[in-house]
Design a protein that fits this description.
Number of domains: 1
Shape: rod-shaped
CATH class: Mainly Alpha
CATH architecture: Up-down Bundle
CATH topology: Methane Monooxygenase Hydroxylase, Chain G, domain 1
Distance between the termini: 104 Å
Radius of gyration: 26 Å
Structural class: mainly alpha
């Protein structure tokens, strides 16, 4: 009876350890899924807004006043886009926390976060380029009207 109780106790302990390991894995799966969903939303946002931006923001103005109006509209769009950057930074910090915590999918998490960072930098570069073009257009029209 004592031997059976010892065996039962060790089996119970082993079962508890296995449950704990599986629960940790399930928690990591849940964290990964949330991370992937957040990243996917940001990929979609960047893709949609970059396409919209590249298609609809091509004009540089027909005169100084028009160029200034376009510049104001662009600055408003750029500021709204920076709100998305806050979300991207949050996702990137979650990715680094998961990777540092020895997540089982840390390689996949790093790949997703790297791609998200590259996509954002590409979008931000397009915004900066547009800002520069509009500033030059504004100066050109101002000088030409003078």
């Amino acid at each position: 009876v004592a031997s059976l109780l010892d065996k039962l106790h060790s089996t119970r302990q082993h079962l508890h350890q296995m449950w704990h390991v599986r629960k940790l894995k399930l928690d990591q799966c849940f964290q990964l899924r949330l991370f992937e969903q957040d990243a996917e939303k940001m990929f979609d946002w960047i893709s949609h807004n970059k396409e919209l931006f590249l298609q609809s923001h091509t004009e540089i103005g027909r005169g100084y006043q028009h160029a200034v109006e376009l510049q104001t509209q662009h600055n408003h769009f750029a500021m709204n886009s920076m709100n998305a950057y806050v979300n991207i930074n949050r996702i990137m910090s979650v990715a680094s926390r998961l990777a540092e915590a020895s997540h089982y999918a840390s390689t996949q998490i790093k790949q997703i976060s790297t791609q998200l960072d590259l996509d954002w930098k590409s979008f931000a570069a397009a915004l900066d380029e547009r800002s520069t073009i509009l500033a030059m257009s504004s100066v050109f029209h101002q000088k030409s009207e003078q």
